[in-house]
Queue: 3 jobs
Job 1
Amino acid sequence: MSLPPGFLDELRNRSSIAQVVGRKVMWDMRKSNQAKGDMWAPCPFHKEKSASFHVDDKKGYYYCFGCHAKGDALGFIKETENVSFMEAVEILAREAGMTMPARDPQAQKKADRRSQLAEVMEQAAQFYRLQLKTGAGQAARDYLTRREMSQQTQDQFEIGFAPDGWQNLWDHLTGKGVAEELILAAGLAKASQKGGKPYDTFRNRIMFPIRDPRKRCIAFGGRAMDPNDNAKYLNSPETELFDKGRSLYNHGPAREAAGKGEPLIVAEGYMDVIALAAAGIKATVAPLGTAVTETQLQLLWRISPEPVIALDGDTAGLRAAMRLIDLALPMLSAGQSMRFCILPEGLDPDDLVRTKGADAMRELVANSQPLVHLLWQRETEGKNFDSPERKAALDQSLRAALAKIQDGNLRNHYGLEVKRLRAELFNLNPTPRARGEWKGRGKFPEKGVAVASTKNSLLAQSTDVEERLREAVILAILIAHPHLTGEYLSDLETLELHGQDHRMILGALLRHTDELDPERLKHILEAEVGVAPLEKLWSLSHVQIAPAVRASADQTLTRMTLAEELAKLEARRGVQREIEDAVEDLDGVADEALTWRVGQAAEARNASMRTKGLEDGGDGEDSGSMKDYLQSLIDGEIWVKKSR
């Protein structure tokens, strides 16, 4: 349904978000200022004792500094009432005394049609529930008992039974006056190819109603009682109500539980979800008989920014995890990822909670692996990297995988973690080189050890206080002038920073590029990274004296300062990269003496460069050709002690 221009603006102007939110929370009146419409309360979306949920009644928005939920009055109604946007508009319009505009006739007709189908599905669900209690459902009841599914759980998930026979449901629904066309359109029966009566889609199966977030029954899943049936599990066909690639089993209840702070778990099937929910782990969903789709992944992220994928530890489960990695990589962002919980081989979540208890499952979820580690496992497990060619092939496959990540800053962090894992893999058990003499200095050094020490010694000389100060000024400018984060996004996404504090602050800034109010941004940063890192940043004298850091600074000067600081930082990083590339060329010929002599030579070269920069009126950061210079040291065999 389309709304006339200005309707939503008028609705928001007539509504008080404080009144809307006030129905769901208890205001902290010690912290709130009711006269100014500045209200605080414990967050209704996650468990907490402190009042970190803020409502600005004059501006009409809410924000939680704990779980980062944010939105306006309509968004709050959608989240807390579990309704669609248009339903939220209708609720708010009634409260504001506004008349909803007339519906488009075609849209109304389509909505009525879906309502009719949903009603037919509800009647089918009730029929299946009753059938489970009859004599025909005895075998199904025995099966559920063996699976230790209590009556309470069966009632909660509305488990039913489709009896054997071709027209049981068909005859029941038509006998109640339901139009044959609606039964067929709902996917509950199929037309006969032989000219006979339509026949039931589900026969001799335990039935699981599939409901949308609004609790409407949109489909069914059925488990075959006959072990020789062609399909152990069968879902409803796709209909006007049901698109299996856009639906999740247990969506509504899981969303509600995740909103209260539970980690969202993605299991493989109905029985896993039911078993976990019965054990008290309620924030659990399952895709409907297929691999997770792109749309389902987006649905998961709307529920939780980091769902935990719980898969069986068998070959099929691992294959599913690996496929999901490729689907997810292009869609990842700083606040949108996933973790993986691989269960012990031979156990699914249902087996685990029945044999070892719910705490065993919670522990596995708490220790779930980040996506990058499963990616690394996929590329390295069971492979031998005993030759340069095999190592190069690994590097190539990893580069191809990381190139799929669209978020530049995230791609950079993935690269750093992969680089760390690579170094760990190749240097974990360094082995001596072939025996022999090395320019009169004894046996060859161990591969990796000398090179690492050489590299660390050289790079340490380029990582100095000046770079950290430049980083601090850049971050301070972005905090004082939030709109610049969006303007310089491409540069900032690939910016490597020293120290955890600086990286945390930049990450938070990149997650909140839509927040343009400096004061609100500071509150967000304090909630996400803590007060101490920000106080440390602002206490630096280099930051305090920078004119561009002041909120009132001239915007042209501010942009010029930011661009200049980024350019100078990149110039220094260019020198570091050239040094690192040159040191890689020393692989196999380095020892401690070389480390010291090349380090001294590089320092002398840097000092010369700085002096030249000052004499030329520059900033002393001209990189020259450091790689060529180091190569000349290699060509001159600097590691060989010259006789006096």
Job 2
Amino acid sequence: MICYSETGVILHKRRFSMKYRFGLMGKIAVSLFISSLIIMFLGITVLYTRFRTEAMRMNQLLQEANLEIAGENIVEKMDAAEYTAISLFFDKDMRNILLSKREVNNKVELHNQVYGNFLRILNTTSSISRITLYRKDGFSVSAGLENNYGHFDYDSCLKVIQKHINNFSEESNYAVWIPVLINLQNGTQEAYFMNARILRDVSSSEPVGILTFYVKEKVISQMYSFFGKDSYLTDSEGKIISAQDRERIGKMEEMDNTGVPETVFVSVGDRQWYLTAVPENTILDATQDTAFFTMMTAAGFCTFLSMAAAFLISRGLTHNIKYLKEIIECTGAGNLNLRYQGKSGDEVDYLGKAYNKMLDDIQGYIAEDKKKQKQIQDGKIKFLQAQINPHLLYNTLDVAIFYMEKSNMDMALHILRSMSSFFKLSLGKGEPLHSIRTELSHITYYMQLQRLCRGKEIELFTDIPESLMEIKIPRITFQPIIENAYLHAFQGTINDGWIKIGVSRKREMDKSVLHICIMDNGMGMDEVKTETIEAGLHSEKCGENCYGLWNVYRRLKLYYGESCRMSLESEFGEYTKVIFAIPEEEENVQSDDY
């Protein structure tokens, strides 16, 4: 049972505070936090571990596979250059010249013939830069770039080959690839790969000469350029023979791995060369992006689960509110016998008991009015007041339910507390009249509810002398008119404005009359609509869009009879005024029981 005495209210508030700590907001917050934390932690941990392991393995395999492909491309490139060069032997005359030990008679004619075939080879491919023939008998022919290649005849060329390849013999070896540094005419050096082929007499197999051709190192380095500047090619001894960084060519590979990323290397064909690269982490980066996307997906999935949990929990927790709303709607339809029977012990129960008390009071008023014919008008007035309150109550409860379903318990609680204070003043402890000061407090709570529920920042101004503040007027006189302004004058996207309440005392026919004017600076109305609403105020049934004004006017007529007047003034886009006059003297009130 709710006690409305001052002491009782204080005790109830203390009990309410103890319950609130473990109320709706606590249940929802704890449930969502624990479920989201567990699901998100497990999901992200599993995904991150799986992706990290798989990414490292795939990156290693892919780098090795790419290096092997690059090595095969190098071999194919060098083999292609070698096949192009030995195409000289496809010509019968050239084969007799190159693979014969007989002495050359007409050297000029023979030189031109060989030189022409060399030029044909150079024009056929861009890989080969120079071709040279050195015969043992001193005959030599060269075509291509002219630089210092370190040899000029058969013997000097053989020495260069033996310098780079240990145990090389003209009797036993056939063809070899040798990385060399060539002194250019501009004073710089450039790396080449020299292919040296021992030419043997067809009949006796005796060495008769050496055929050499050169491939630029840049041609080879292009085969693995996509590995970046840290990739290079080494011989069997670790000497760098090709590199993206040209300054490293000719140097030994550094074996100090301190601060150096892990390298990957593969052998290049059967030449005992090794292609080495510091792998770029493209795959790892891509996998990290994938892991991030997956984790975000997991987070989104967890959020979805949280939303689902919030919906289910909120639905369970707001069941009593919906039940109370149904009772209020039935009450608004005229059924005053239903009562709220919730047993949750939370804030909703508190509101339901308050509403039950209001229904009990209304039923008490109606039962008493039925017994006393002198209070028929009082019963009509209370019935009209009861029609105002339930509409505001279940509309406000709709908003509170919305915030609870969104897990905004602070806002929902703020709305419920404001609504509770509003209805305490509405009940007025059963008194039909209260002071203008109390009515203004009632309006303050109402505007606070509108500010919370509708988000409209409407300012309230008053022009009431202090001497008139304690004059008694019927309860819920200003609030329906203020509500009418919210619903119509400030509808839609109009979220600010002002409402002004003015009260003055005048003498009319030797009687003191209170003139009350409630004005807003909202949308206003045209003349036709103003006349239509004003005509509806004086009808027996409520007209369209004027229930609040009609309700107030009907109650004032029941209190004061024909001495009460109400009128409406408005200008479209400027303002709306509701003006009414009521007698101040208490003896003019129709019922002596008030």
Job 3
Amino acid sequence: MTRNEPKKVRTKAPSKKPRQAPEPAVANPEPVSMGNTEAQTSKNGKTTWEVGADGVNPCYVASIPAEILDMVIKRLITNPTPTRSRRGLKVDRTVHAGFKRPPVDKVAQRRLRSVCRTWAETIDATLREVHFDAALTPHALHFVWNEDRKEDVEVIAERIKRDCLDLERMPAGVPINLTLIRPRGTYPHINGGAAVMNWGAKRLINSFRNLKGDTASLTIYDNCDITWARDLLDDAGEVPEQRIHHQNLAEARAAMGNFDAVYKKMYVRQPTVTKAYRTRSQTDITKKEDGKVWKRLHTLRLMFNGVVSDWVFAKLSPFNFPALRCLELHLHQDEPLHLWVLPYSQITHLTLGSHTSNFILLSILKLARCSLESLSVRLLLQQCGQYERQEPCIDFPKLHVLRLYSATPQGNTEQVLDALKCPNLRTFDINTNALNAAARFINRSECTLRELYIDTGCRNSTALDALMRDHSTALEVFHLHGGIFDKFDWLDHLTAPRLRELDFICLGINEAAITTPSEPFEPDAEDFALRLLRWVKEWISVGGLRDTEHYQPQLEVRFCAAPRKFMAYLTLHPFYDARAFRNQLLAVSLPHAVEAMQDELLGEGMKVDLGWWLYEGDVSAYNAGRGSGKEKVEAKQ
């Protein structure tokens, strides 16, 4: 029809037949791939698309390649690991984030799963995370009175139904990552307030087609009695010869004697009988033993805050856990470490947190020395008894990562460090005041460090001088969290041509200098920050680093300062928790001299992130002094 041509007049009356809805499109089970552009754009070709969630309209996003689709879905529904808080790093790396936070956003997962069949199959096949938290589903099962049946009827929480449905949707035989948070709780109306298994957790585990065959990662966090968890992993158990609390060295030796007996017995296996000569009873026994095997379990994380109800050895036999490689065991102070007999000879990544003596801890570590690649130890016990180690150092030939966190006296940490030797160590993370023992351990191991993390309240810089002088050549990551050291000269030994990440948290702002700035005070966080920034400026210029292949123009420098009063609570790390002091700590502007140095480095292309935090009672005095120019900028430059 040409432009401005008059429209034709309708001469016939409209039909009085009822209008019919168009037939819905039928999805072809074999959708056209993205590469077949000719079939999609051809006029004669018939393009078919998968039907969307509404069952009528085609879903064009279903044609995204599986590799890209997998990446997109993981970005959208995977919760990021909380490695950084508002002010500082999350220091304790021994506690897995999965204990507290689900790795997958279930709401976003269900929304994306409802887009189309292709997306649902991709999610079911690749994202196999099941995270059960009993606190979010209290009781998870309750009873209501049914008038018709005249009895109580079980009512299952909707969240449990959805979790069970997610398990049923997963393809058979795929590995599952299962997390159970507080699956037991104390209910006042049951057995006088006893701790019983949450009905929702029972239903969840029972709905799992093959718990022992499909579980690849199992995480359990419980604050009640741990007997059920031990029975889940080892339904047999073994009672020790005597109950020993290892309060002294004699009891510790007796406890390890029981442990060694159970450990050796665990590795004794009955001779196998050929299939041709098996009796019916032997066949039944074989099937029963096969039913105990956790075939795919690669990672096991256990954290308990409750007390132990009995003294039974939990035996995780290598025959029942053939694929177990990563183990995290965090025990309560009333739960002895030696009651967990584990397949240490096959463990590559081990995390131990226990209130145990160094004798028992080192005796257990000796069993795992040949296979360990990563070791994290949390020393929590005030040392029981006296133990002077006379044995030679324990050599860990494959160990690359060592993390040591101590809440015990300095002598206990020194004893552990003096007993280890790791020639291939690459990452060393220590939270203690025993820096001299750490320096001796590094020199004894003759290793080449790539990453060094230090969290300490020590003020003596002698150990830092030794570490920087002998081990900074290959250093790539350096984190130092603590107070003000007596000297800053150790920075002169930090050559670090391969350095790419530098992170300092200094609990060293002198509050007294804010209110009375005219009086002389010892160096504080501002002096440390200026000294560090001058070192960074020299690092990019002196020595011809700009012209060498080791020059890193993208070096990330981070410095965060806080008041000294938080140094007294360094072991509790209140500064790293933004919620704990939300109304007490406030961010303020940088000192003028520090701000000037930061602007200069930013102008040269460096990544420098500085933060200054003060107690709320000192903010007004600090701002007044900064605004009136009371800072001695010229003297500090």
